[in-house]
Amino acid sequence: MASLKAELRGETLPEFTLTLPAGWVRRAPSDQVRDEMLAAAKKRLMSVHRPDLYVQLNGMVSRMFREMNRVDTVAFFIPGPDAPDEAFLPANLTASVRRGSHGASLDSAIAELIRNEGATALGEDKRILRWEQDSTETFEGVRVPTTTVAYFIPVPGTGRKRALQFTLVITRDNDETDDGSYLEGLKMLFDAHLATFAWIPA
Question: What's the CA gap between 168 and 188, in Å, rounded?
Fold first, then answer.
């Protein structure tokens, strides 16, 4: 599995596996997948006479795929077409490749994440570095509080020059009155799923 950019560099990325939330599936950030998603959304929204929502969704999905390509995303994870209602969470998860500057190792980046971002090992798993931050993003002109959790996993056999980074973005309601337990529950859920990550031997 590798992106077009990686293939042009002559890079390979080992396959990996992880357990996903019930109903979630792994998808490739390809033009074909984008077009399939938009076609399914168009059919659904036209059937309920909401072409206006399709126009908005088309722009949002196109921007999302452009951004995934920009940061060298290799996979993203979403509820599948047959997912139960409870699978639709206010969260999205992507996996992208990070590289050391000018071919150097990522050791200095790792040290900076620990020093400046408070990154720590994911539980007892020393392979995975985890950190999080809160911010406010703008979606369709609306400012939305978000929590981003990142998981950093060096790619074996690269001398820590490349890493796979999972990025979980959780959006929150501006009027949310929850005491934070739902947010903490979501973070714990995805922490548990990322802890199942494993490289698949060639």
Answer: 12
| Range 46-51 contact pairs with CB under 8 angstroms and sequence separation of 24 or more | none
Q: What are the Cα distances from residue 155, in Å, to 75, 94, 97, 128?
A: 15, 16, 9, 11
Distance CA 104, CA 150 (A): 21
Domain edges within the chain: 17-81, 89-202
Tens of pLDDT along the chain (202 residues)? 455 555 545 578 999 999 999 999 999 998 898 888 788 778 877 887 777 777 777 777 788 888 888 889 999 998 888 888 899 888 989 999 999 888 889 999 999 999 999 999 998 888 999 999 998 877 667 788 889 999 999 999 999 999 999 999 998 876 655 667 889 999 999 999 999 999 998 7
Q: What is residue 56's three-state secondary structure?
A: helix
Q: In which element (H, E) is residue 130 found? A: strand 125-139
